[in-house]
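Reviewer 2 asked us to include a model.

Predict the structure of this chain.
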Amino acid sequence: MLQRKAEEVLEAIWTAEEKGKRSQEQVQEEAQVELDESLLEELTGNGLITREEDGLHFTAQGRGEAEHIVRRHRLAERLLNDVLGMKAEETESNACEFEHAVVPEVTESICTLLGHPKECPHGSPIPEGTCCKEARHVVKKVVVSLNQLSSGESACIAYINTKKHALLHKLVAFGLCPGVQIRVHQKSPSFVVQCDQTQLALEAEVAADIFVWRPSES
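Predicted model (structure tokens):
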């Protein structure tokens, strides 16, 4: 398992590469830690990077490792921004702490909860995970917004697509989160869904932000 400083270096190399840079000095500008010899030797010794004349390069294994690290970091930023309401400029340092404590399973759950976002709050692309690819496959077939279901129809929540963090927090508090089975109780005069033993009234625009799939068709 990589030490935290080594993960920071891989993330810095990825970020520098996105900007068309790769020299050790340019990577250092992106790094939160000092690129000392011991760190670089650890990364080269583990077969994650190579040191060439023009700078630092990923091996195939190193690129995969860096992709996971960057994905965790940028999803953490989205979570802090979208759900907890932190400003984009405040998410960076907190996301650095968060990313090292998140296991892959939790990362996928966060991504699904947020509706598989493509960019972090700063506009940098979030590398796709398995859940994103699976969701894209499912969406093409059977995922629809909740308001498209008929009264009496049941479905499973796939993801919630809203940038209103207060609304997202409220829906999760009510138990409306990915993986939960719900049933449309009525659509008129108000939109009402059954979740477990509880009936919840939703505004039409809220129902439009909840995307579901029908288990029988998946």
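The mean pLDDT is 85. The chain is about 45% helix and 15% strand. We have added this to the supplementary material.
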